[in-house]
Task: structure prediction
Amino acid sequence: MPISTADTIIAFGSLVRRAHASGDTATFFAARPALRRLMPHFQAARNATRPHLPTGMANSLDGSLAALTHAVTGPC
Result:
């Protein structure tokens, strides 16, 4: 579980960086409707996984998901 969680943390961070680098986060995520539809799944997976992770990794997962959620739903 920790390896897949680490991969998820890296992937979320990469998406946020790529969105910012694009210069238009709204357009970046508008072009990814499948990703936007998966946001509730990401939240549910985080909630199910978090109790089984080391504290630092759980906190990193929380932070990366929060950053992605903010980038997807709000102005950056």
Remarks:
- The CA atoms of residues 29 and 72 lie 6 Å apart.
